[in-house]
Amino acid sequence: MAGVARAAQPFVIPNALVLAGSRPGLRDPVAAAEGVAHKALVDVGGLPMLVRVLRALREAGVEHILLAADDPEVLSLGYAYSAVPIQPGAGPSASVAAGLAHFGAPLLVTTADHALLRPEWVKDFVADTPAEADVAVLLARREAIEAALPGARRTYLRFADGAWSGCNLFLLATPVASKAVATWEAVEAERKRPWKIAARLGLGTLLSYVTGRLTLAEAVARLGRRVGINAAAVAARDGLAAVDVDKPADLVQVRQILTA
Fold it and tell me: Which of 49, 80, 133, 159 is the most core-located residue (most Cβ within 10 A)?
């Protein structure tokens, strides 16, 4: 199914969603190591991580920001940047579904732990997204990441055209992007039944991936077609876009980068 074509470039993102929820009953290791209530409050280069993300979005030209959070201090920081609070869902996909229901498309999605986020990354991502895409995801090549941050340890997906890592930036460009979010919610619900997740990918796609014949672009496009949308993978221009703060070692790296 062809998606709803969006406007020709340059394209301005009026709305964004920042995910800053907490997992019930689990203390984030970064927050625990830093002695704060929430990871988004951790100081990075003199500013809380969340503030760095909100500033980058504002400087990129984003007009309206939703903040999926329930921690009072995190919400207070959001108010300072006129971010509209929404109750986070049971998982990231539910929060994204709520954001899409609130603002509609187009909607840029990122996370509160994207401490190095830069306005130009947001602008480049939007500019590089194909006009026909309903959904786009930003990923960085391993070579780009290691060139920007030698010795970086990231989680990579290996395809025929190399190894890639996610950059925590997503664009829900058209209304039919809701189909992708619904599938994401279903996959989260099936996370303890991997055979059902595999079935969603299709045997042909799985075989192509296992045998090393599937490129990243082909994989994303195939997954999109199974959902009924046009999906695109966008290559990050800067390898640092793949660096977020999932664990204390990541925080050390991010602080070193900002100090340098």
Answer: 49
For the chain, the structural domain boundaries read 15-259
Per-residue pLDDT tens for 153-208?
788 888 889 999 999 999 999 999 999 998 877 666 554 454 454 555 666 666 76
Segment 29-41 mean pLDDT: 95
- The arrangement of secondary structure in 15-259, i.e. its CATH architecture, is Alpha-Beta Complex (3.90)
